């Protein structure tokens, strides 16, 4: 089922999320719905707060990015209760966008490599290291679980430039090519 993506201004996007356990109701269906929603929206990651759930779950699918980022060709997985345990000192800058902030893209500086501990959808624990674009996707989605969006990481002067766009999104004065949930 395709779920509506919550847009900037929805309170759930600013809340820190709660861990879940394997008894979370219909978790596999939720993850499947998140993948379907992500595919229709043509994104590469989707966090539970973006569909109105304040839980520590996100999915990534970098397969469409494979031509430009070969390491992402088979990068499709769910992350449950993730905890980043290590960041590299090396950083890289790249222009990011977000399904919850349609029409906005800005350069964000992030660590090039991360180590993350998480559970997959079968609740098997993993500790993996991701670099370059894989790390960027994971960090972007992880931020959503902490109640942050990518514009929180841009310079103050750039934040001033996007302030009116963010305000318009929050007021429902924007459109997206996918199903959305706006402020009431």
SSE blueprint:
Blueprint: E1 5-6, H1 27-41, E2 45-47, E3 57-61, E4 76-87, E5 91-97, E6 105-111, E7 113-119, E8 125-131, H2 132-145, H3 156-170, E9 180-181
Parallel strand pairs: 1-9
Antiparallel strand pairs: 2-3, 3-4, 4-7, 5-6, 7-8
**What is the CATH top level name?**
Alpha Beta
If helices are DSSP runs of H or I spanning 4 or more residues, what is the number of helices?
A: 3
Helix fraction bin: 10-25%
What is the fourth-level CATH superfamily? Answer: Peptide deformylase
Structural class: alpha+beta
Count of individual beta strands: 9
What is the average of the pLDDT values? 95
Largest sheet: 5 strands, antiparallel
Give me the side-by-side strand order of the main sheet.
2-3-4-7-8
| CATH architecture descriptor name | Alpha-Beta Complex
Count of domains: 1
Low-confidence stretches: none
Strand content: 25-35%
What would you note in describing this structure?
The structure is a single chain. The chain is of the alpha+beta class and 184 residues long. It has a single domain, classed as Peptide Deformylase (Alpha-Beta Complex). 24% of the residues lie in helices and 28% in strands. Strands 2-3-4-7-8 form a 5-stranded antiparallel β-sheet, sandwiched between helices. A two-stranded parallel sheet has the order 1-9. A two-stranded antiparallel ribbon has the order 5-6. The longest helix is centred in the first third of the chain and has 15 residues. The mean pLDDT is 95.
């Amino acid at each position: 089922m395709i779920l509506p993506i919550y847009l900037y201004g929805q309170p759930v996007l600013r809340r820190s999320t709660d861990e879940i356990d394997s008894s979370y109701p219909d978790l596999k269906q939720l993850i499947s719905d998140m993948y379907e929603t992500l595919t229709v929206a043509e994104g590469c990651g989707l966090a539970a707060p973006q569909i109105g759930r304040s839980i520590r779950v996100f999915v990534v699918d970098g397969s469409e990015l494979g031509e430009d980022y070969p390491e992402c060709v088979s990068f499709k997985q769910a992350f449950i209760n993730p905890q980043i345990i290590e960041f590299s000192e090396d950083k890289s800058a790249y222009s990011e966008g977000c399904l919850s902030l349609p029409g906005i893209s800005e350069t964000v500086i992030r660590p090039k490599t991360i180590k993350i501990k998480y559970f997959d959808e079968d609740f098997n624990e993993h500790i993996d290291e991701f670099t370059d674009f894989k790390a960027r996707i994971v960090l972007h989605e992880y931020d959503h679980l902490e109640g942050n969006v990518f514009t929180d990481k841009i310079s103050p002067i750039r934040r001033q430039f996007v302030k009116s766009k963010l305000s318009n999104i929050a007021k429902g004065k924007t459109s997206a090519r996918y199903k959305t949930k706006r402020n009431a």
